[in-house]
Amino acid sequence: MPLSFLKSIQTMKNNKQNLFLFALGMVSLVSSAQNFHQNKQKIYNDISKEVQNNNNLDQLAFELLDVIGPRLVGSPEMNQAHNWVVNTYKKWNIKAENVAYGEWKSWQRGTTEITLTAPRIKTIDGMQLAWNAVTKKPIEAEIVAMPFFETKVDFENWSETVKGKIVLISAYQNSGRPESQWKEHATEEDFFDYKAAKEKTNTAWNNSLKATGKNTREMVQFLEKKGAVGFVQSYFTGTMGSNRIFYSFAKNTPMVDVSLEDYGLLYRLAVNGKNPKLKINTKSKKLGTSKTYNTIATIPGKTKPNEYVMLSAHLDSWDGAQGATDNGTGTILMMEVARLIQKYAPNNDRTIVIGHWGSEEQGLNGSRAYVMNNPTEVQKIKVLFNQDSGTGRINYINGQGFTHAYNFLGTWLQNVPEEIRKHIKTDFPGMPQNGGTDNASFIAADIPAFNLSTQNWDYGQYTWHTNRDTYDKIVFEELRKNVITTTILTLEAANDPNEISNEKRILPTNTEWPTIKEPKRNSNDY
């Protein structure tokens, strides 16, 4: 028998074997998809039971918020958080990696000591603002309050008096009580007078700033050049004890935010001629520059691996507290959803991708960089769910201008338990979001990207970017509901046999669809 004939027979046998293995694999894939649809109610029941009785939310919150703490972009804590997310996913057998997209100045918060030293001794409640200069030794100086200005000349003449002084740069608040208390407890006449006086003061203050010809940042840097040795602000939110903590405008001198109560004390002492003195001692560290990252995790799909369902939550925070509700809750929500899917339903049709973005707080930089850097991958995303609005239960989903969002989202939501679903309002087709949080980066790329908006819990006044955004503000009862909702929506999207349309609505006249924006890849402007 010719050797060529024997080889031909062997080749046929190998082809048959390969064909058999391929067919077996296809049967296995189809079988896994069928198994999900056949068993999904049991899967959802098992997931709901684990969420109620044995979830990881408390432990994840502890590790992220108590052990790592706030996650200012560029800080060592931010990089620690990225690595923690990767390592946690790896423990759950979920592939994850940190992907660099830029760099940022690296700064680490230390202790802040602010002390009134005259006319009496008192510890002042406050903290240094982010990326502020490091004081090599304590600064002690007289405090002066910035007056109201009628003209730019008035401001420039006054600026000649600030050399060697610490300047108060916020408006004085006549009352430290929130408006809700005035409304509830004051007489109608007193409440009216309170609001009128507050509006008058705010108008006068804003007009005074306008008269200087400078915004607050420019004004601080101008006064710094005139010899001011420090700056004190109080960014009161209107809720007792809550101040927003952002970043310093001063380049070479200390700039701190203090409580409304202590700011009022300092202001009254200054304007009443008591020549108060303040000592500021900060122990922060400037550490050069650091790479900025997104953390990306993946649960591969089986039959449609090149179609993605994406979960989205920014990992960074401002560092006035712990970044618990902005956006620790969004972070641990998406991590817990991924853990449950990997445990109970890992074999889905579509690939599930989880994006933990960096530098959202400075302008959606991480998610915008992902969209810019990965145009091919982004077009594989069929739907995205983002969470970044506090600790409350999901109560609103906007269709974001996608014509058929009602069809697929409405169908998927029917699988969420009634006791949870009844709290969720929808608006279809809605209008596209142009900013605010990371789903906007993907809407600009024509991806159906939905923010899972939540019950308020006084988020805007109490915890959003404030010194009160701490672990104890998390409402875990609400967060558990969100895990169930998001897990079910994700699995429904990942296994929906239908195409998920990204057809866009016709927008009203003079309204345009958002466009893709370039991220800030460095901190040159901060």
Q: What's this, in brief?
A:
It contains 16 helices and 17 strands. With 526 residues, the protein is of the alpha/beta class.
List keywords for this structure.
16 helices, eight-stranded mixed β-sheet, alpha/beta, 17 strands, Aminopeptidase, 526 residues, Glucose Oxidase, domain 1, six-stranded mixed β-sheet, elongated
Structural classification? alpha/beta
DSSP E strands, number? 17
CATH architecture of the largest domain: 3-Layer(aba) Sandwich
For the largest sheet, list the strands in their spatial order: 3-2-9-5-6-7-8-4
Bin the strand percentage.
Answer: 15-25%
The profile of the biggest β sheet is: 8 strands, mixed
CATH superfamily of the largest domain: Zn peptidases
Q: Helical stretch count?
A: 16
The helix content, as a percent range, equals 40-55%
CATH class of the largest domain, please? Alpha Beta
Task: Describe how the helices and strands are arranged.
Elements lengths: L2 H51 L3 H12 L7 H16 L3 E14 L3 E7 L3 E2 L2 E3 L10 E7 L6 H8 L6 E3 L10 H7 L2 H25 L3 H10 L4 E4 L21 E4 L1 H12 L5 E6 L2 E15 L4 E11 L9 H21 L5 E8 L7 H9 L1 H4 L2 E6 L7 E5 L6 H9 L4 H4 L3 E3 L11 H5 L5 E3 L1 E2 L4 H5 L12 H20 L31
Parallel strand pairs: 5-6, 6-7, 7-8, 11-12, 11-13, 13-16, 14-15
Antiparallel strand pairs: 1-10, 2-3, 2-9, 4-8, 5-9, 10-12, 14-17
Task: Describe what you observe in this structure.
Helix 2 packs across helix 9 (324-344). The chain has 16 helices and 17 strands. Mean pLDDT is 94; it is low at 20-24. The longest helix has 51 residues, at 3-53. It has two domains: 42-107 and 288-495, Aminopeptidase (3-Layer(aba) Sandwich), CATH 3.40.630.10; 112-283, Glucose Oxidase, domain 1, CATH 3.50.30.30. The protein is elongated and about 80 Å long. It has 526 residues and is an alpha/beta fold. The chain starts with a helix and ends in a 31-residue tail after the last helix.
